[in-house]
Fold each of these.
Amino acid sequence: MNKLSVLIIVNNEEKQLENCLKTISFADEIIVVLDKCSDNSGKIAKKYTKNIYSGSWEIEGDRRNYGLQKCKNKWILEIDADERVPTKLRNEILKIIKTSMYDWHLIGVKNFLGNEVINYGWGAYFGKSSYSGLFRNNIKKWGGQRVHPKIIMNGNKGPNLKNKLDHYYCKSISDLITKLDSYSTSRAIDLKDSGSDESLYVNVRRLFSRFWKCFFLRKGYKEKKVGFIIAVVASLYPLVSYLKYKIELDD
């Protein structure tokens, strides 16, 4: 029988976690990994599962791989605490794991800013249009980066799921700016650890190319002012990361 494990990685998500867990009660197994949690996330998780693991990881890929190793079932759904599985997606997932001849499937994502769905402009590490969220055990492996680690998928890719995941990505514009600061700091450390020889010129070029991609190619202009700020934040990410690396971390 094709059973499903759901993996959630948590870092102080007491405000989001329960709403997420309520939407995945259909899973045969729920795995919660608590990373440096100091809030009530653990108490909340205990109401839904006994499979709770605590630890401290500096590398995002390491903690995600640890969680994947704890999943026992044939299929795995990987989500975050700020994500929800609507009823139609739940039904589709249950059908897929019974009938699919493939090894993994992309799940589309509806990104929210506050309570509003923002359909256009996401990308360049801010928001996501889809992700490799449903896969057979031992198919997925995360890379060793601190932020947005690379993903290695083995096996055969199947059709994208028709229904989308709800992703409550940011509460506000201020939250979006906070993510830029956090992500760029982690990326700067990755650049230092890898001994990156990127230049200022290359990252200034990325500023313009990423803005063009988010605002025009991904149609962020349809979201008007919100689409503009998303494009600005996404385009600033590589440049700010580089400057933090060179100014704050380069010995």
Note: Residues 225-249 form the longest helix (25 residues).
Amino acid sequence: MNARQPLKYDQGFSLIEMAVVLMVTAAMTVAVVPSVIQHAQYDVVDNHVDTVLTMHHALKTYYDVQLNDVNAQDNANLFPSSCDALAEAGVIAQLPVNTWGGSFECSMEEIIGTQSDTIHQVAKLTVTDVPGEMAEYLTAQLPLTSCVGSTCTSTILPPNAQVVA
């Protein structure tokens, strides 16, 4: 009764099977990871666009509040000269954080209208440290925005503006 028992193999990968699995995993990583990273970058830009739009709305709200003030005729600055004024006026709770670590800068600019005695005010929102590869996408998403290097500036028209010359 010395019958030999058949050999049992342990469950698992052989060396060849493991090499095939590693090659397939490597090929999928090369194809999928860059796409995931690029998608994540655009998600960051979309969040940044939302933040800039929040600032746009805050600047327009500030303008409306200043315009509706009983002393509006005495108020020459319907847009604030700094972003801090938005928080101080209670238009936004606090200044948002720039996605890329740069700053938000608000300023006011006067533009002479078609008649030389007409002056229009526009706000300028400048955002710094925008990655170069995202600047084109940002300008496509935000009207009246231009980028030079890593600095993008948006022009915000008054809420009641129809045409600014």
Note: The helical segments are 15-68, 84-88, 132-141.
Amino acid sequence: MLFRSILIIRTGGVGDCILTLPVLSFLRQSHPEAELHVLGNPNMNEVVRLYGMAATCRSIDEAGFAALYSGGKPTEFLHEYFREFDRVLFFTVRERSAAERAVLDAGAGACRALDPRPPEGHRRHISTHLLSILDEYNGEPPTLPPMSRAGTLPRVPGRLAIHPGSGGVAKTWPLERFLTIAARWSGETVFVTGPAEHERGMAKLIPKDFRIFSGDTLAATFELLASAERYLGCDSGVSHLAALARMPSTVLFGPTDPDVWRPLGEGVTVIASPDGTMEGIVPDTVMESLTHSRT
């Protein structure tokens, strides 16, 4: 079927949004004639702008879009917006039929809704679940073509970028072990921190001997990651961003399943804890991975 304009509705954390990019990539390959548009939260919109895949990005936080979730009749605002789209792909935890009906009533040509959370027992990569919203998806492993900017930014020889945090405390490796790696690394170490690391007081515990980078934007963090020789982190949005930057990465997994949640990228090495806890990963194993990647 020929589509003129396709809309993707998606909200979530940075990692969740990056893992949705294979859907946009698949659409671009399958429907090169169609314009892709995104309606998302700030994370999704910033990720998509960075990746450069969509014609427009609009904030779902605009007041007019609240009516999309009210269950009432669509407003003129919604009619004016959705009637421009031949097809809408709606990632939402709402009941699917209600979500689809709201979009169709607002004037979209077609709509498919999908709960972005993996179904119980799902053991394949999460992107395969997200791609299942597409009737034309053939079940092949998800791919994420590198960004045009990835690999073109100059790298600083010997620089190791470390993101010590994660969205959940249980997914975070003990800070003292990151500091052990930083002390043993023969080169510059940059700790990449965000709001979570500052709120938990983690950033204050990093010695001033090491550089601390707190990017104001996703684009600034991307450029810092792309400048490094190597990246180390946990199951986090920043680790997915490092993979997007084509950064040779070591990513640590404890309670979460790397088969489902690992960053997409050929240069990603996963270290899964033998006992399902982050404490089960020892510094020697991590250091061996980082050292091996330099040879």
Note: The first strand starts at residue 5 and ends at 10.
Amino acid sequence: MIDLRIGHGYDVHRLVEGRPLILGGVTIPYERGLLGHSDADVLAHAVMDALLGAAACSVCLSGAAALGDIGGMFPDSDERWRDADSLHLLEQVAARLAETGWEVGNVDATVLAQAPKLAPYIPEMRRRMANAMGIDAAQVSVKATTEEHLGFTGAGEGMA
């Protein structure tokens, strides 16, 4: 019997001037970047939360206790994580999963951003995130979409 778990992750960060735009570990040329305690890589953050939510604790009595979220593992109250490289954090999440007997089967993620166009950067995002998780890039899907100028992402105020 295969014990298959599916996680869901969501993250959002405000776009501001004076910060680099990093998505999936790739620095993308743009006039604004995402604001956060770490590098604010909204894509990597959502993937980490999905992985942590999908993995159950193999040593817990109930067998169903999730591993929490990135706020629990890497709290923004801890200066160790200021400006942290989110791919390094993703490596630590993958290691935490392995410690509890879980492995990543695949990742499917969508970035919500009105601009810039992300399609040229997606292959490298897939490679870098796969490498951080210790899996093949074929196991990682990244998509990007606009929200047709609707909501905060459509207005260019942030990304999700």
Note: Strands lie at 13-16, 21-23, 26-28, 33-34, 107-112, 140-145, 158-159.
